[in-house]
Amino acid sequence: MSTVGELFLEHKAEKYHTTTLYAQVYDWLFSGRRHITKVLEIGVKGGGSIRSWEAYFPHATIYGVDCDHLEHLETDRIKILTGRQEDQEFLKAQVIPHGPFDIIIDDGGHHSHQQQTSLLALWPHVTVGGIYAIEDIFYAFDAYYCPPGDKSTIVFLQEQVNRMICRPDALLLQGLHLVQFSYGLAILHK
Ligand SMILES: C[S@@+](CC[C@H](N)C(=O)[O-])C[C@H]1O[C@@H](n2cnc3c(N)ncnc32)[C@H](O)[C@@H]1O
After folding, report:
1. Contact 49, 11 (CB under 8 A)
2. Which atom of ligand 1 is nearest to the CA of 66?
3. I want to staple 126 with a disulfide (CB 3.0 to 4.6 A). Which of 49, 120, 130, 148 is the partner?
4. 99: number of Cβ within 10 Å
């Protein structure tokens, strides 16, 4: 069985310099979950990562959300949902009905407000025991992705971690019970 790293290389996943680091974390997290049935990734581009997930999770349907029309990447187990990740009506009408999802990965627009909007809308549709990963959270320090006045995804997640530890009754993300950070990555467990 191939590792995530081998599949990212084979399918040319576009995770840039982070590919190896992210792949290692994903192998730790996902190797015991090869039986899962639904994966959602926001951000499809050339299809490298969704093809990797299709191979890694042999029983799963892989849903790819992108603002560009990438329907040519569809297969029996890859479904493309076209729309913007911060568009709540799109998420409600076209994404959420396919859930609940065992794993959600956000590799979309990377703007902090987009990451938080998608997380808040989709978190209730993660299975219990499931994982929500947000990639490239270092963009929180880039004024293009997080202009002055916007709350950065890192600050948002720190607030959720504080509540998870001290005030679980006040959590915006109900059922959050473990959060992990790595280089560029936030991993939330339900
Ligand atoms: C970094 S690429 C995804 C790479 C892919 N996950 C991989 O590893 O091979 C980001 C993708 O997100 C899409 N995107 C950008 N802004 C978006 C938004 N607001 N909503 C949905 N998709 C968006 C872009 O069209 C692009 O295809």
Report:
1. yes
2. 22
3. 130
4. 17
**129: three-class secondary structure by DSSP:** strand
Contact 41, 65 (CB under 8 A): yes
Catalytic residue among 17, 69, 110, 125: 110
Structural domain boundaries in the chain: 4-153+183-189
| Pairing state between β 178-182 and 126-134 | unpaired
Distance 47 CA to ligand 1 centre (A): 10
Q: Given CATH 3.40.50.150, say whether it is the number of domain 4-153+183-189.
A: yes
**Per-residue model confidence as pLDDT tens digits over 22-75:** 999 999 999 999 999 999 999 999 999 999 999 999 999 999 999 999 999 999
> Cα–Cα distance between 149 and 69 in angstroms, integer?
32
Active site (annotated) includes residue 17: no
Tokens at residue 182, please?
A: 């790595």
